[in-house]
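Justification of resources, computational component.

The compute hours requested in this renewal are based largely on the per-chain cost of generating structure records like the one below. Each record pairs the submitted sequence with a full structure-token output. That output is archived, and it is also reused by downstream analysis tasks.
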Amino acid sequence: MKVLLLALDSKYIHANLAVRYLKEFCNEFNIHIKEFTINQKVEYILGEIIDEKADLICFSCYIWNIEYINTISYILKEGKNKAKILYGGPEVSFEIKKTMEANSFIDYIIFGEGEVTFKEFLRELSKPVPDLFQVKGLAFRHEGLININESRELIDNLDIINYPYDGEDDFSNKIIYYESSRGCPFNCSFCMSSIDKKMRVFSMERVKRDLKALLGTKARQIKFVDRTFNADYKRAMEIMEFIVKNNKNNMTIHFEITADIINDEFLDFLGRMPVNMFQFEVGVQSLNEKTLSEINRRMDREKLYNAIKRIKSYQNIHLHLDLIAGLPYEDYKTFKSSFEGVYKLGAEKIQLGFLKVLKGTKIYQDKEKHGIKYRQSAPYEVICTNYITLEELLKLKDIEELVEKYYNEKYFHKSLSYVINKYFLHSAFEFFSSFSQYWKKNDLYKKSHSRKKLYEIFYDYMECSYKIDDEFISSLKYDYIYNNQFEELPDYLNKESEEKFRLLKRHLANDQEFKNKFFPTIEDKIINEFRIAEIGQNVILFIYRDKDNIFNKCHTHCINELAMNYLKEESIIRKELKDEKKK
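The structure output for this chain reads:
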């Protein structure tokens, strides 16, 4: 019996964890993995599946790929493919009978935690006369009826699950998913992790052994899927210390944490961590007390603020703060307040999400109570509630796009701060709302824009809405040069303010004293490693020496005196260049 495990990831750079767990745990069987993305053509994927000539085709099902999987499975069955089809994963672990009734092409569903169930199922299926009724966590068709066996208890000792990744896999430039625990100590009503009611951990010995192997790959990032990585802060510290000692490839490590439970010992520890190695995603979700209470989320706002500010002050850990629109008791006005509170914390990214009404969660059970209307197909995103209208949610969608473009990438840090503080009384939400109206009025949402174009749009918006002042020009010019090493200044940002220092730049690139001071470790030509421009009343030297440092990728220095001396000696420099041309 040949078994094919199918993963349809959202992006090519992702490496599916679930199918790898199943393959390694059930290594006594003839199992193959095929991994695709939802952006690939259905016809191509079908061809690859059919070529495998598998007896059992198994799909890993999530909200982002279920519609795609249903299409592929339907075509396979209608095309008289003889393989049996099995679904597993969080998207099919609830309302199982309804799912199988609506999709006659599904032969089996494994619901809940899958490893032990899958192994027992394959063993039973391999027998001359299988008895599938005894396999817990399995649903199947029998004599025209849908049979759903009893649920399987959770695995207590996670160490029995094999290390999921094959040493021969090439993870170059990919994101590897990993977990050191399962479950969550919290009970948030919108989250599927609250369903298990139990948190379990892999042994520290096992985690370190796994991480040693993962850190030896050429992956771009290891993304921990632990729902609350810092639930046990001493365990979290031990894992992070191990990563620091063994992360020879400077891989980025991503964790989901709860910030308001962080104590001083953990905060002090975080202050000693290397720059750029760790990313923290913090699920704030809302700052509205009534909303937090209704979704079973207890949060000490003061502790949250203090923890975020402390971590932010270290300038070493990349912070992502999450908000969710469409939660119970959250209207447009209270969401604005939540956004303002989060924005003022100054995290590297603010991720605006929209409520997904997932089967099995408390929010799904309470949808009538709160008048939550949502899309009937995956990802089941909120349409409106008793508290927020469709029109308001669509406005937030537009704002989300601009937050991603203009805030999250940090290409407009100085100019954005200037505009919000001067023209919008420190209200970031009001700025993005106004800017969004401009985008909509000018049909800017209809197509994608280069980074260079985004600067021009920002300039045009300010010119259209306000009287552009010198300070705005200076801040936007600063951002442009800081973040665009090789892009020439456009005319609207006074191209001449950099051009007039072109000769000085060339002169300094060959000046040993200058190189010793600003580029002590670089021996080759440095002409493209720095730029000089007049920003307001000052002449600024921009040095692109530490581009991998997201907190300080470009170093800046005020060089007024050096520039003044240059202007005095400009005729000498011109003469030297003229002589050089004659030679």
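Residues 110 and 138 are 5 Å apart (CA to CA). The first strand starts at residue 2 and ends at 9.
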